[in-house]
From TrEMBL:
It comes from the Bacteria. It holds the Pfam family Acetyltransf_1. One of its GO terms (molecular function) is acyltransferase activity, transferring groups other than amino-acyl groups. The lineage of its organism: Bacteria, Bacillati, Actinomycetota, Actinomycetes, Streptosporangiales. Residues 6-165 form the N-acetyltransferase domain. CDD domains: NAT_SF. Signal peptide: none annotated. This is N-acetyltransferase domain-containing protein. PROSITE patterns: GNAT. It comes from Acrocarpospora corrugata.
């Protein structure tokens, strides 16, 4: 794949069709790793939830040449923030997911803990989490792994600028 610029930015209401196309372009394997099920047609309510940004929720997209290639979202509840990330198949393993997570966590204010649910078979993501947060607590429950890790000051700060992958 030729290296091109990827912009990481907050979602906008006009991203709905780009995010729909992104979701439908994910392989069944990737859809299942993110949503724990395959998607046939993303509903309007699902798209609204993926784009939502307010005092508790944040969402980012990674965009290359006008096309969404990654999505990350966070939902803060008190001192906890739950995150979820997915990157299109052809852009996996080049750092887009890691950059989405770092950028998302830099935007979170007031949270001390990050959590996420990871499908137990998603070994690549679980290995990445172990490297990023070696002290994370991982609990297996019904085929998924609940991850909880303490946020550090270094993970919170200014928003990252567009990146090159």
């Amino acid at each position: 794949m030729q290296r091109t610029q990827v912009e990481i930015r907050p979602t906008r209401p006009d991203d709905e069709e780009r995010v729909r196309a992104f979701l439908l372009g994910l392989s069944l394997h990737t859809q299942t790793h993110r949503f724990f099920a395959g998607l046939t047609r993303p509903s309007a309510s699902m798209l609204r939830a993926l784009l939502a940004r307010d005092e508790r929720r944040d969402a980012l997209v990674a965009v290359s040449e006008g096309r969404v290639v990654g999505h990350a979202m966070a939902c803060r509840d008190g001192l906890d923030v739950e995150i979820a990330v997915v990157v299109t198949d052809e852009w996996q393993n080049v750092g887009v997911g890691s950059r989405l997570v770092r950028t998302l966590l830099r935007r979170v204010t007031g949270a001390e803990w990050v959590s996420m649910d990871v499908l137990g078979e998603n070994r690549r993501v679980l290995a990445m989490i172990r490297r990023a947060w070696p002290d994370a607590v991982m609990t297996v429950e019904s085929g998924s792994v609940q991850v909880r890790a303490e946020l550090t000051f270094a993970e919170q700060g200014s928003v990252a600028s567009p990146l090159r992958v």
